[in-house]
Structures are given as C-alpha cells and as structure tokens.
Specification:
heterodimer; A: Four Helix Bundle (Hemerythrin (Met), subunit A); 6 helices; B: two-stranded antiparallel sheet; 3 helices; 74% helix
Chain lengths: 168, 104
C-alpha cells in the first residue's frame, strides 16, 4: 500500500465522521463521531512525518479535550436538538448560501493543486523526535514557557467561571 | 509538490472539506456545544494544511506551530466549557437562539 492510498483512506474516514458529527442532533453522539474523526486525522499526521503531533492529537485532543466535552454534556444533561427549523428561514438560507459560496471559492483556489503528481520522496521516519524537541526547547523556549502561563490562566479562569455563586 | 509521496493537493482538498463541514456545523447547529465542536474541527483542518506544507517543504517549524495550536485549543476548550456551565446555571439552556442577552 502506498502512503497516498492510506492517506486518502484516513482522510476520507475523517471527513465521513465529521459529516456524522455535524448531522447528528444528539451532542453525545456528535462528540463520539468527532473522536473517530480525530483518530483518523492522527493517522494522516503520521503519514505527513509528524509522529509527535499525531501522539499529541490522540492524547490531548481525543483523550483530554473531547472527554472534557463529554463531562460537560453529562453535567448539563443537554437534550437532543429539536427538529424545528422554520423560526428563522432567512438566517438559515443565508448561512447555507454562504457555506456553498465558501466551498466553491475554496475549490476554485485548489483546482490548480489537484493535478500535482506523486513522486517518491523521503519515507516517513517515526523515530525522528529529537530535531523537533531541539527546536521546541531552543528557538521556541520562550513561547513554550508563555504557553504554560496561558494554561495556568485558563485553569484559574475556568475555575472562577464555573464556580457556583456565593461559594468560596 | 509532494509530502512523503502524498500530493499536496490531496492534503489541501481533505483540509478544505473538513473546514467546510466545520463551517456548516458552526453556522447551522443551534446547540452551543455542537457549535464549539465544529470550531474544533475547523481548527484541525487548519492544522492539517500546516502539517502538509511542513512535510512538503521539509520544515519542522510547522510541527511546532501545530503543537502550540493544540495547546491553545485545550485552554480555549476549558474556558469555553466553563462559560457554558455558567450560562446553563443562569438560563437553563444552551440553545443559541434563546441566549440573546447581549443581542441588539
């Protein structure tokens, strides 16, 4: 199997489950479909020679962020979205038109790229973490540390926002 | 231009499809959490493009950028979900059509 076939299969799976996510009215099923989609995306990341990002995608995105979504959904007991859709027809029609126009514009831009042919290039080397780590902890060390402050601020902010009024 | 034998056109097409699906979800859903999920999907579509070009150009900077994007998405998800929890306590709903406190 060529990398291209695997990539196309994984990307197709990701797109399919993204569609399932958008179509489902029940939010819990949406989250579960998105988990599958993100796993398929992790496969494409491996094929694009980014094994570290693929691992982070599985651990942080599928493992932490989406589980947080599931927790909040269970906490709020969100009901299934009602099937009514006629309360704002103009709004919905405008949205649909905007989406179609945007998709058409994207396709027009990408048309020139579709014909590029595949040429064998460097094979993906899954063990290549050291260069990324060196770059992350040398050139981007300041951003990395700033990121830890950002995460701390988000932690405190989430705590303050979600706390019950009047409790200490 | 190819990334590891994968034509960059495939990567861009997959990324564009995911982005458009996410955009449709963000505009057409009424549940705030579903909208948030769609935004996460759009962010992943952008990540896919960045990684595709990083592989095609044999650059590692793209991976660093995506690493930061994922970390910031984690922070954003935590704060956003906390806002939804607080909102739900106030209004008993997270249907965006019924939340119009700051509208007009």
């Amino acid at each position: 199997m060529t990398p291209r076939l695997v990539f196309d299969a994984a990307a197709g799976l990701a797109i399919l489950f993204a569609c399932v996510m958008v179509v489902h009215r029940h939010p819990v099923k949406s989250v579960l479909a998105l988990v599958v989609s993100f796993f398929a995306l992790a496969v494409t990341y491996v094929l694009l020679a980014a094994p570290l990002i693929a691992a982070v995608q599985v651990i942080v995105y599928a493992g932490a962020i989406l589980v947080l979504f599931l927790f909040v959904l269970m906490l709020l007991n969100v009901p299934e979205e009602a099937r009514q859709s006629s309360d704002r027809p103009i709004h919905q029609a405008l949205s649909a038109g905007g989406i179609v126009a945007f998709a058409a514009a994207l396709l027009a831009v990408l048309r020139g790229y579709g014909a590029t042919q595949a040429a064998p290039s460097v094979a993906p080397s899954p063990g290549d973490l050291a260069p990324v780590a060196k770059l992350l902890f040398s050139d981007h060390l300041l951003s990395f540390e700033a990121l830890s402050i950002l995460l701390l601020a988000a932690l405190v902010g989430a705590f303050v926002l979600a706390r019950r009024e009047g409790s200490p | 231009m190819t990334a590891n034998g994968i034509p960059i056109g495939d990567v861009l097409l997959a990324s564009a499809a995911l982005f458009v699906i996410g955009l449709a979800g963000a505009l057409l859903r009424r549940n705030a959490i579903s909208i948030f999920l769609s935004i996460e999907l759009m962010m992943n579509a952008a990540n896919l493009t960045v990684l595709g070009y990083a592989a095609a150009l044999h650059s590692l900077e793209g991976q660093i950028v995506v690493f930061f994007v994922i970390a910031i998405a984690a922070a954003e998800a935590a704060v956003g979900l906390a806002i939804f929890v607080a909102l739900f306590r106030h209004t008993e709903t997270i249907d965006v059509n019924q939340i119009n406190l700051l509208k007009w």
